[in-house]
Design brief:
This protein is α+β, with helices and mostly antiparallel strands. 35% of the residues lie in helices and 28% in strands.
């Protein structure tokens, strides 16, 4: 298995880092982003660990969500790849979720 981060997921992680750097410190923002990226690696050992994501079922890719604190990692599995499509802050409206 291997992790694949989509462009929208990488854009979102950059947004998260910028937001948290503006509201805390650069170091804390970097720690948060590093932690989120590291924790996604657990999907390599158990790619179906997360729960089915009903808000993205219409896309037909079998999107799943894995809660990591206040963030939800949105992903789907295709063959031997886990595609990370979003790092969603659960404090946001679900309509902002990227699949």
């Amino acid at each position: 298995m291997r992790l694949v981060y989509t462009r929208p997921a990488l854009e979102r992680i950059a947004e998260i880092q910028t937001f948290w750097a503006d509201h805390t410190t650069e170091d804390k923002a970097e720690e948060l982003v590093t932690s989120l990226m590291e924790k996604t690696k657990q999907l390599l050992a158990n790619p179906l660990r997360g729960f089915p994501e009903p808000k993205l079922a219409r896309l037909g890719l079998g999107h799943r969500g894995l809660l990591l604190g206040r963030f939800k990692v949105i992903y789907y599995v295709s063959g031997e790849e886990v595609h990370i499509t979003d790092f969603f802050d659960t404090k946001q409206h679900p309509s902002r979720m990227r699949g």
